[in-house]
Amino acid sequence: MTHSGLLALFSLPGAVAWSCNDAGATEVLSKVPLGGIDPLAVCNDGTEASYYIKGNGNSNHWVVYLAGGGWCYDADSCAGRYDGSQYPHHDCRNSSEALPCFMSSKDYPETCAKTGMFDGSAIDREESAVASANKIYVPYCSSDGHMGDGEFEGFQYRGARIARAVMTDLVQNKGLGKGATLLFGGGSAGGRGAMTLLDEVSESMRPHGVRVLGLLDSPYYIDVPSLSDDFAGFQPQHPSVLNNFNSHSVVSSRCAEAHAGEEWKCLFGVFRMPFVETPYLLILNSYDAWQLSHLVHAYSGIEKVPNYTASETAYAEQFGAQTVRDLKQLRVPRGSIKYSQACYNHHITEKALFFSVTTSSGVSQNDALTMFLSGAASQKTAIDECTEFDCGAGCYGRPTALI
User: Fold this and answer.
1) In 259-352, which residue ranges form alpha helices assigned H by DSSP?
2) How many structural domains are present in the chain?
């Protein structure tokens, strides 16, 4: 069967943003409000932000994960995010726990069961690389890629402030301290937020004796023009996020100096990643489904099964080639791993596919995380280099994933 035929059978999971009570999840986290830590740690609508935690009695190993879910950047896109006309297509005026408003905490459940890397039990004879860690999940209600700290057009954009309040609470009240290793990361918008906050978190944890490592899932926008005339590209969104939401606090001084006058680039993956100094595991798909859905068909979200013409396929393959080329040229901190599957996929660290989808050489994202945490970096096996659209031999999971 061809890759395109397999793609139709094995389409992307429906949820690629923040979620709770995932099907098959074994790890249940409890909600912790943040109002007592910082009264300005609020969602877009002003409701109190929260995070979820599951303590596993391990004082030396912690995970903080910033959830994903796209973003908005100006008055029109934020209005569309609120009324459901744009991603995630949940109407905040008629939302529920199953279809939550992404601009409020009003739909947050008291507990949050998570799968993927959060799972606490073995799956397919594997165990998550962080199974025994204390796990913290930060749902996403700020619409700013966890980068903002301001007010715009009647909404609050406090994502960076929320993340900082989480870290404050963990140190002051939850036991994060001397001798611990903290894996700080996130997926999609959460991965981009973690990318911009990682060095700051590492520096702030140093006086507490905490070693920080990064997990950056799908943060890596590349600098390409849009194929669709109906989508202007991701580049113009970033100056708006920087200025409308006051995201200047996450712009590092080295990056700002290098991109003086274009500081928005310090929020954009391919431009920001060279300035990240904390060791990290970078996860991306060379045919990133979020970017291609927007760039090819101007789709607000992710097309589960893309139907491409010959010219659109050629564009996607050029996109994949540039992603791999940029990735190979990226200089990384010692101990980091660059991991890329040649798949049409996006942000699966929160999903069961974290264990089953692999590179062509059979390395899953869980395998890569295990290697990273153990210090056994393997660049050779971590990047797919086939050149046809969605060509990775491991894109559809190990055999058990298709049963």
Assistant:
1) 269-272, 289-297, 310-329
2) 1
Q: Tell me the per-residue pLDDT of 140-187, one tens digit each, with 9 for 90 and over.
A: 999 999 999 999 999 999 999 999 999 999 999 999 999 999 999 999
Task: Tell me the CA distances in angstroms from 42 to 47, 192, 349, one per residue in order.
Answer: 6, 20, 26
Helix axes 289-297, 310-329, angle to 10 degrees: 140
Residue 381: the pLDDT is 60
Rounded CA Rg of the chain: 19
C-alpha dihedral sign at 102, 104, 107, 113: positive
Under a CB-based contact definition with an 8 Å cutoff, are residues 146 and 159 in contact?
Answer: yes
Mean pLDDT for 186-195 is: 98
Whole-angstrom distance, CA of residue 377 vs CA of residue 380: 9
List the domain range (segments joined by +) for residue 152: 3-402
> Between helices 159-173 and 189-205, what is the axis angle to 10°?
40
Q: What's 383's domain CATH number?
A: 3.40.50
Provide the token pair at 169: 């609470």
What's the pTM?
0.95
